[in-house]
């Protein structure tokens, strides 16, 4: 009995198996773990955990990183705080490998409403799904930490960034990157970190590190920079307002310098409180023997394919796949006990090696270009007349169609309350949506909306164009970039096509924008794996050069400066020298692309297309505003339903009218003219008495028409008689009856016409109720005729 009770107790305890089986092992959701002795009992473990904290000076503020207090079941956990913004990041990795042949890393960055002191506005008042900002921040964190995992480490790993408190001053995304770095570095997960991240702003020409949200509104640069040890660059993501190249390079250097302070702080925390790194069961790397045989079997064949410059993307892939199948079959015969991944990866190693050696040694690429040449570029604009703007950009086998659509300012994107509090962005009247259908790469797939990759590429292209679009444009602008063919750098092709489509639509952009991707092939020093012995930079990379290369460096800008940049680095950091050369090489290519684009269209159209939307303002006098709007806005709703226009009030007498087409505006103008046409009201004299006809009986009064071509006016119950009238029928008023009223002009507040019948009646104290009310009584009647009418 005692044994059963003990077992029941243990079943609800996370340490049940450590008590029943071994004091050194415990069971978690990710498998069996070796348990530190201090974790034998919960109470002793919780009381003996040592908390650590380090801080880094950020001007007048301090960036604090701590561990040991929260989420202690995770492999690694770190708390990062700047000002009153706090982020907790956890890292957990399974101890059993997966069957996938890539690093299965998942990063989840969540914006919690509670962290901003708000309640979610969803139906269930819970956080449901992911916002665009959450997905984009998760991608930035992923690109920052992924390159530092060891090759062949294919174990499910998850990073969760949990916002605990947001002060509305300090952005939490930078804290989340540093928190992810600290959490993985403190854990026993194999990782070649740590890294450090800063945001770099440029305010009045001065570099500002980790600027506040208020400072960011004045900054012309928003650069997220992640650095590694030895002043290396691991990741960059930037949006800029046409920043000069030399200013951008200076900002990068200053950012790298400040990342080193964060790295040193995390290293100090790891030395004091970090866990020893685990030894994985196996690394998914093929043995040297099978790679050597694969090299002997396939090296010359692969070299022949990559040296044949007549191949395009499809034929080259087919030829390589043919060699792959032959080689893998021979390897399986020779190494019958080898695992499938070793056979596949052995060929991949050889193929990648041959591809890179041709570039490194012969300075040639698989399509015959030299290292700095662009592919052939063709540009077209105004493809379809009904569209507000359109452009087609073809670069090699990458083809993007961009269209522009205008809509009313009410169609702008309104961000949710939590994103507004965290990022400071309230609404956007310019958006770019990127679409990558499966047929672009000769594949079959489901069209189920944007995935994370599409969202990221669209956000990059949007940042590249946003700074040249006028902020006070009268319409909401949506650019749709659809990739029709893809063989590398489709996001930068979207920038080029989007720039031309905006000019074709007549948007007065400040300057045309072009984008280009630069790749990298490196040769690592075998004696010092962290040092790069030699390298080659490639302008305008193909898809295969991205796959087999070490960097995808995307940069967009005008002839003058830089508007966006994103550096995806696939090795554990690059020295500043290579980054600066990449910026220079991309700048040269960017100007060459702009020159080619100028042959299709040089500047924005002076006038928008005839079939485009129309925006006009209508001035409605206060005296006619009630008639224009109608009861409860009836006239405006009717106008929108019949013509498709949208009307919004600008000020007391001015309304803005948006029409999707000129024909719709013409119909709307006729409708508005009919509403606001002059009638015989101008003949009315203040204080004069007129005979009007009752056209309608309402609960609150009667509608009276003074002239046949005038709009009926409400005569309220309070102005029908000196007695209190609950319903017009109580005093015998009927439709078609003629009554005398006195005109007192227009109400200065709402513009309504003021009429009164009461001032023409003799005073009475009788309270008149609805005739249907049987309990009505007459009090203090002074007029026998009025009394008889009331009864």
Automatic annotation (TrEMBL):
This is polyribonucleotide nucleotidyltransferase. Signal peptide: none annotated. GO terms for biological process: mitochondrial mRNA catabolic process; mitochondrial RNA 3'-end processing. GO terms for cellular component: cytosol; mitochondrion. Keywords: Cytoplasm, Nucleotidyltransferase, RNA-binding, Transferase. Belongs to the polyribonucleotide nucleotidyltransferase family. Residues 687-758 form the S1 motif domain. GO terms for molecular function: 3'-5'-RNA exonuclease activity; polyribonucleotide nucleotidyltransferase activity; RNA binding. The keyword Transferase applies. Gene3D superfamilies: GHMP Kinase, N-terminal domain (3.30.230.70), K Homology domain, type 1 (3.30.1370.10), Nucleic acid-binding proteins (2.40.50.140). The keyword Nucleotidyltransferase applies. It comes from the Eukaryota. InterPro entries: ExoRNase_PH_dom1, ExoRNase_PH_dom2, ExoRNase_PH_dom2_sf, KH_dom, KH_dom_type_1, KH_dom_type_1_sf, NA-bd_OB-fold, PNPase. Its EC number is 2.7.7.8. It comes from Scyliorhinus torazame (Cloudy catshark).
